[in-house]
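Forwarding the complex inputs:
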Amino acid sequence: MGVLTNRAKTLEQKPMTFWESLYLPAIFKGMAITFGHMFRKKPTINYPEQKRPFSPVFRGLHVLNRDEEGRENCTACGLCAVACPAEAITMEAAERQKGEEHLYREEKYAAKYEINMLRCIFCGLCEEACPKDAIYLSETFAPSNFTRKGFIYSKENLLIPHPVNEKEKYEVAKGLREEQLKNK
Amino acid sequence: MAEEIKKLKVTIDNITLEVPQGTTILQAARMIGGDVVPPAMCYYSKLQGSGGKCRTCLVEVSKGSEADPRPMPKLVASCRTGVMDGMEVKNITSPKVIDARNGVVEFLLLNHPLDCPICDQAGECHLQDLGYEHGKEATRYEFKRRTFDKHDLGPYIQLHMTRCILCYRCVFTADQVSNKRVHGVLSRGDHAEIATYIEKSLDNDFIGNVIDVCPVGALTDKTFRFKNRVWFTKPVNAHRDCKCCSGKVTLWQRGEEVLRVTARKNQWGEVEKWICNECRFEKKKVSDWVIEGPTHVNRHSVISQGHYEKMKKPTETFSKVHDGRKPKLLMDIHSVSEVNDPSIDLSAINGPATSKVFEHSKKQS
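Prediction (whole assembly, two chains):
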């Protein structure tokens, strides 16, 4: 077989000299490198105690938004589902009845809303497609689970805490991003 | 000697064709087809007297006729202007027409609520298509829009007057398809509205056709209300023996459920044959129909996103490759998902689903 490229080098295999056959100098050289790393800055962090800041464009678990009065924004228009390249989103709509005006913002709402996190690729197209500011990708990872059921997120899992009825939870869920931005 | 039908020569956007006398410019353009056809929101070839209201079909006549070659001073509505011999018409080749049409589209959208996320017509709405075709997906109008309460026209038809563009198609339909009309346009100008005269319910056999005729979501099917988005349902051609109509319809299915029945529409979005109320509102079972096959959907329509037309349903191959053994563990999607619950038959509900419908299923599971 001919040579394909002229970059090939012939390997020289000379017998080891006395100094090399001792091995110890090479071992000490290697250990010196190892110990040298002890005094360098650590690239890792202690994860659960310390957390790295998320990138501003990070796309994590979805949340379904409410307005200031706590009414659900989603009207089940199906644009997120049709935009979803992984077909992870399904929903069923219902009509708002009299007396439910404080629950849903529009005449129609999503009675069922499910995102299959096993299918989801966190591309954020649902967020872009949404005409009602109803779906957002948050700064949370999808937690691991043993069963498939745990990955099908229903509306109850996705909705943000009620800003009036569950004020404390809502403040926690809001996260620190807003204050961080203010301080800057 | 039989009198020869006089053929008139007309040129539309530099395409020349011969049409019989009495043809309008719009009809002549439709004979050519493609991009030169002006859009029409109010004109409906099957309804006598329709047209001339929406002004979206405006065209420029650059040469009146062979006998009088002067151009027409203003843009004309092509649906109401007859062809003359030697006429030259500019549609998409005229910047004046494009500009005027953009203006007309904006005027039509002035009082339109833009509630497409809620509206059942979204996806097959002519006004939505028209708006997007003319780059008008946002509005510049900042004032209060004309509003009306939603209204029931009989037990099956929902009227959202806020979405209406006053094309009068439904009025003509009620006038011509049924023998007695009880709804029309009341008041004038900005206050004009489609209404049943003194809350009379419409109980004609063919009144359901006003839903198909409506170019926007003003008249919608109550039995389909909020059941699903149009583009997630599968359009299927079907027919049945009907005493009063042709029985040729399009079924809009989700799985095996028939969520909606409409008449078949041609390439201009016009109904091919009127269908009766019984076919439209009461036959919501697959067993009522003889299914012919998937309806052809223009590939530019969002409805084609499901690719139903050329889809081959995959078959279960497991037992084939495993010597006839059945799989031991199979996950039923309904054990983990609450959507599309088999215990809820949406097509059996005679109106929009409500919280009660879904509460019932929660108790069961």
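Residues 24-38 of chain A form the longest helix (15 residues).
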